[in-house]
Amino acid sequence: MLMLPVAFAQKAPDPRTSPKATVIRPTALYLQGDTGSDKLSTVQPGREMAILERSGHWIKVYANTDQETVQQADQPVFTEHEPEHPISGWVQDPGVIAADTPNGAAVLFGVAITAEQAASEPHAAAGSALDARRLYRMVAVLFPDDARTPEAMWRTADIRWQLQKEDASTLPSAHEKESYLRQQPDETEMKRLERQFPGTKWASFAAYALIDNKLCGDWQGAEKCPEKEASYYAEFADKYPDSPKAAQALYEAAWRLACAGDMWSADNDDKRAAEDRRRSVETAAHLGTRYTTTDYAARGAGLIYKVQQSIPVYGSDRQ
């Protein structure tokens, strides 16, 4: 009987189906499980890896070491149609977080918070915000059922949103009145949050952020801009009255209506000026009644005083 040893050859692990992991610090990727072997690259915090093999304190992985692209939504490293293969190599175990790491979700989330705070400091290290974003993302990838996952997904989306919003603000198109003429942050992750966690504060945070893409860049003297923007914020407060953002939304609505009133007055349309100012006072009064203890309630009281005393808001109190 002929033996067919090829039939019994061990198949190489498939990275698409292998356990996933990440690292919480810049980690050297070696050709072999030995620090004396060639160093292939460095795996940055939060990069997704596939675990292929373990040998003592060494782990063989496929790791994505490509530079982060912030203009496109993050995709899983390993997909059926991945155009480029990640680098195969060995990393040392300390600093590697996998789904079976004890208290791994808390560890990963905590490191992400630290990175996010570091990114907000003056002279922050380049890439620290993206480190935080990737680390938060991996909380959801490795620990989808953890209680921290909804917040981690929000923070993942928010960091990207803020980075893209900042980039867009530097372009000449940022001053265009119509929102569709401006470069806008990608809405994919925010809308995913709304779908996955309806009725939660994380969904409300996403909905509030999405208002950014509806706002005028520059009002250019058009009263319809603050009026329409006020309606967006008022609609948000109606839909999410228990959101931590609800009080702020009402203040934004009231302030914009007061501005519209000033603009109508400058255009000698006293009737429409009076109507917008009346709506501003009503909105700010509702804010004070519904969210009494918030700073925005106090700011609303100040706004009411200015409107009732005919103190201009637009141009002198521009936010």
Q: How would you sum up this structure, described in words?
A:
This protein is α+β, with helices and mostly antiparallel strands and 319 residues long. Among the domains are: 14-98, SH3 type barrels; 219-319. Helix content is 45%, strand content 11%. The protein has helices at residues 104-119, 128-142, 149-169, 188-196, 201-210, 224-239, 246-266, 270-290, 295-308, and strands at 20-23, 27-30, 39-43, 49-55, 58-63, 87-92, 96-98. The strands form two sheets. It has a five-stranded antiparallel sheet. The chain has a two-stranded antiparallel sheet with strand order 2-3. It is elongated. The N and C termini lie far apart (86 Å). The model is unreliable at 67-84 (pLDDT under 50).
Total number of helices: 9
How many beta-strand elements?
A: 7
Please indicate the percent range of residues in DSSP E strands (runs of 2 or more): 5-15%
**SSE order:** EEEEEEEHHHHHHHHH
Mean pLDDT over the full residue set:
89
Strand order across the biggest sheet? Answer: 6-5-4-1-7
Shape: elongated
Poorly predicted residue ranges: 67-84
Helix content: 40-55%
Mind telling me the C-alpha Rg?
26 Å
N-end to C-end Cα span:
86 Å
Instruction: Characterize the main sheet.
Output: 5 strands, antiparallel
